[in-house]
Specification:
Blueprint (H helix, E strand, L loop, with lengths): L9 E4 L9 H14 L9 H5 L4 H9 L5 H19 L9 H10 L3 E5 L4 H11 L7 E3 L12 H10 L6 E5 L2 H9 L3 E5 L5 H7 L4 E3 L7 H9 L7
Parallel strand pairs: 1-2, 1-4, 2-3, 4-5, 5-6
Helix pairs in contact: 1-4, 3-4
């Protein structure tokens, strides 16, 4: 735990669209999945439909509320297999994220991943990125009852880390993820990797919106926690 009172006790990263530039691959997997199941694909509307919500909600939206838990699980396995095929063995990390993680690690701040993805995909991507050793905890949707925007995943992560939610910072990219972090009582920096800045500003209560991790340093984080109020980068 950091000794600097102007830094958070813990920093939690969402995975897709935050650690890894996976949004294009998620869009491709959903488009492929929908075509396989005879569902019309609206490429323009797709990001707003599939980036953020839990898979079971999307399955039921297009395939019907009658789906059983077993059917949802089977569909999820099919979808995740398509995703791993699409993204391949060398997923692209967001520019600047590795440098920031190393900087955070050097200050002794504990880090975790809290993702709406299933555990097998979280493990696959973190291992492929070579970042596993930096994270004390990784929490996936499999370990929760309520999906984002419910704050459960962030509150549970803080408890696992042994830190006060109010002393945590979250990096997020989606509307539901940002809402989950704020409902957990945490500060949140939103990355415009998935949605435009104007949409994030209009639809969320992120404490700061940035265009890239390349503009974020520990000084940015200090300003957020010492009340000086960093300006959007």
């Amino acid at each position: 735990m950091t000794q600097n009172s102007n830094l958070p006790a813990a920093i939690i990263f969402d995975m897709d669209g935050v650690l890894v530039d996976s949004s294009p691959f998620h869009l491709r997997k959903w488009a492929d999945f929908m075509r396989r199941h005879g569902i019309p694909v609206d490429e323009e509307a797709l990001p707003g439909i599939v980036l953020g919500p839990a898979n079971d909600k999307i399955f039921r939206r297009f395939l019907g509320d009658h789906l059983t838990r077993a059917q949802v699980s089977e569909l999820g396995e099919e979808l995740d297999a398509i995703f791993r095929e699409e993204i391949g063995p060398n997923p692209p990390a967001l520019p600047g994220v590795r440098r920031l993680i190393e900087e955070i690690h050097s200050q002794g701040i504990v880090m975790a991943v809290a993702s709406a993805a299933i555990a097998s995909n979280v493990k696959f991507l973190i291992d492929a990125l070579g970042l596993r050793g930096y994270f004390r905890q990784t929490l996936a949707v499999d370990s929760t009852t309520h999906p984002k925007p419910h704050p459960e995943i962030y509150l549970k992560t803080a408890k696992m880390l042994g830190v006060d939610p109010a002393n945590c910072l979250v990096f997020e990219d989606s509307f539901v993820g940002i809402e989950a972090a704020k409902r957990a009582g945490m500060k949140c920096i939103a990355i415009t990797s998935t949605f435009p800045e104007e949409d994030l500003r209009r639809e969320t209560h992120a404490d700061l919106i940035v265009s890239s991790f390349e503009t974020v340093t520990l000084q940015t984080v200090r300003q957020l926690f010492n009340g000086t109020g960093p300006t959007p980068l």
